[in-house]
Amino acid sequence: MLETYSSADALGEACAHAVAACLSEALKTRGRAGLVATGGRSPGPVYDRLAKARLDWARVVVTLSDERCVEASSPDSNARQVRERLLVGEAAKAHLLPLWPRPDPAAIRALLPFDAVLLGMGEDGHVASLIPGDPGLAHALSTKEHLVDVPEGLGKPPTARVSLTMSALTQARSVFLLIAGDAKREVIRRAQAGEDLPVGRLLAGSAAPVRIFWSPTH
User: Fold this and answer.
1) Which of 65, 67, 81, 191 is the most buried (most CB within 10 A)?
2) For 68-106, what is each residue's pLDDT tens digit?
3) The whole model's pTM is what?
């Protein structure tokens, strides 16, 4: 399901509202909520708006789809963007579970299935750090484990990474995929047409329908 928005701001507003609704429902029915955040440019406007949502943030746990193996203060750290743009104001009461250093697998397992997953996508069709060209990709796409290591030399920047697996992502109660530009829309078309890309595995395997939010520019 591809939803079109005229600008990154309009996309951010709509997606933040949808994610907040998922978290609110989780808090109401289960007493806690688990959110998977992601890196890149696309989620920034979502975080800015989601941070203002009226939620009991103290009962929300935020983790990440993937992380570069860098210091928490590095500009390349996905957790840094989450801390600076999402976990502010009342939302600072949420608990952040970083992926680097690698957490206890039991801490991730306790969040499954995630209530809401935010993902970006590369022009090579990667989601999280499930990147074409990784010699361990087949394992990451098929294993029932929840975390995998990704070697350096892949992605931008080409640092080593930790990523949630396809199994962990597709169990989620809701999945939101954020993309911008015609090139990425074409990648989605190819994936839906049957090309074997990580994003295609996500679209085909997700327990919940994946909502794809698209705008022409970032």
Assistant:
1) 67
2) 999 999 999 999 999 999 999 999 999 999 999 999 999
3) 0.96
